[in-house]
Amino acid sequence: xxxxxxxxxxxxxxxxxxxxxxxxxxxxxxxxxxxxxxxxxxxxxxxxxxxxxxxxxxxxxxxxxxxxxxxxxxxxxxxxxxxxxxxxxxxxxxxxxxxxxxxxxxxxxxxxxxxxxxxxxxxxxxxxxxxxxxxxxxxxxxxxxxxxxxxxxxxxxxxxxxxxxxxxxxxxxxxxxxxxxxxxxxxxxxxxxxxxxxxxxxxxxxxxxxxxxxxxxxxxxx
Length: 222
Hints:
With 222 residues, this protein is α/β, with parallel strands linked by helices.
């Protein structure tokens, strides 16, 4: 007896475009909200360094080509787009240190950095689109959290690029001060090289002591 082949299952998140676009921004504009900012963060998962948030208001007439989720782009492409975004958009950046992350938690520290980035925009946003599940409290405008937002909104994608490049540059500078951990290579993520550095030298002041495997280890020279 022949088996019937079931039809293909429908795609999850069918409304997610192959590349981010300006539809969510246009929808907010039609509802009377303008300008619209996109916000995202970089660095929630690493064992060391800050979490960095960025907020971006794009000029609809000068949107850089190739905007996408920063994780989908090469380092060179991110750097190129970073410079284009700074040259054509309104941008604000904020960060929360490892100390603040340990004093609160990574979610609260990330949202606090995002809130400060949004409120730091030179042109106040009338509406904000954020990547993920949360809109920070304490904003002066309404907002919408967008799951997979950096793949749906060019404004969020631009913010993801700015946050990622900024944080990578910060960790490259941190490598000069703490070369034993290889921060320039992995930006603080828990790679084998990084874990070996912690095992040999202990953590430094940039490490998140509430993150495994750093709990109960001793801090070395500031």
